[in-house]
Amino acid sequence: MIRLSTVLDVWKNVCGKKKVIGAFKQLVMFRHWLAHGRYWVQKSGLQDVDPYDAWERGRALFDALPRFGPLS
Asked: What is the mean pLDDT of the chain?
């Protein structure tokens, strides 16, 4: 099994968009903590995430990936 964080690290090394990919990784960490019952100390650095912010981070990630654009 390959973890999403590993895939994101590879993308970070390939496309060099460290800030965008780091922001998305924060979101993934926050989601993981929230989805699994908040049993451990939350380390993403986020206090709260609204749906629009989550959508913006996801969109920015896909915009940063090379040749990942809308289908024509």
From this structure: 87
